[in-house]
Amino acid sequence: MSTSATPGKSAYTLLYTLGTVSLLFCAGFMIRIAWYILAGAEPLAALNFLPADYRIFAPLGLISIAAIGIFCWHKGAQLQERANHNSSGR
Question: So where are the chain's domains?
Answer without folding.
Answer: 8-88
